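Appendix B: complex inputs.
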Amino acid sequence: MLKLYEFSTSGNCYKIRLLLTQLEIPFERIEIDITKGESRTPEFLQKNPNGKIPTLEIEPGKYLSESNAVLFYLSEGTKFLPTDKWEKAQVMQWLFFEQYSHEPYIATSRYWISILGKAKEYQAEIKQKQAGGYAALNVMEKHLENHQFFVGNSYTIADICLFAYTHVADEGGFNLNQFPAIQNWIERVKNQPLYRSILR
Amino acid sequence: MLKLYEFSTSGNCYKIRLLLTQLEIPFERIEIDITKGESRTPEFLQKNPNGKIPTLEIEPGKYLSESNAVLFYLSEGTKFLPTDKWEKAQVMQWLFFEQYSHEPYIATSRYWISILGKAKEYQAEIKQKQAGGYAALNVMEKHLENHQFFVGNSYTIADICLFAYTHVADEGGFNLNQFPAIQNWIERVKNQPLYRSILR
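Resulting structure:
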């Protein structure tokens, strides 16, 4: 059985749980407490030398890291990744957009505020992340104003990947009230078959 | 003909030039001076709403952004992207590693020091980027100690993507002397057929 090494409140880990659930693939969850350095132990570095979660154990001793690489691997050949070359390229574009222009702002702020509970200690850093996070949300809003989903009018790993931290952006201090298209898209994602919440 | 909107000293843009050259695909280059805000004009935001280069115009009005998404798109079906599912997943893993754990440290420092020429003004920021950059180089060094290339013993877009900023890491204040495996790999990449330098 697949083993998911994860920190369960992490959106990057939730992406994998959501896709695996929607693919009806069973998996075992192993909690790695990153706030206690558990992803940096010599034992864990054997699994992922970059010391990060999620890491998926595909079969004994065979590990894949980077949440969006795992989404790609699991979705190939399923309805969650288009086969059309141009649509697949656009999925990839949104996956890299998420890791470069979205996650480092919104997920990082959420980590300081809601996971560590240290909004005061990280006040200056959180303030620095606001502009970048809102820029990413603006790019998403503009796209969703005339698209039901990110690519090709159907729900793909581009949606799963961007949903993970966007739907909990308020936990990072981002207000979604000014983004009606994003709010409607969040509802569409939540209405997908076999949807599961980040809380479980 | 493909049109590459680029800032030519950017490693992210160089990745695309290198692959297109090795694929023997002709392309037109259009310089966008990011230091003058040229990727943020209303006209350019029509091409890439995220306001970043490189952006590749595949055909009139059809644009693809995110350097590693472009590498993926161009390399599918060529020797630069494995067809084996597991090897392809590992390529993806390194592509996301590069954009999350490598580029934000090494490329950003190089931008401040060697592109803007403002090492003094950005002294504090550059210092903050050192640990992350060296951590990424250590992950690469460890992998290259027993691999000729990043995935599957052959030269792929994983190598192209990591090469772009690694071989000019000194321009970002990173010393490669302590990384012999990386240095040897850089030579192997430079010896690939149809290699072109970042300078042209």
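The radius of gyration of chain A is 17 Å.
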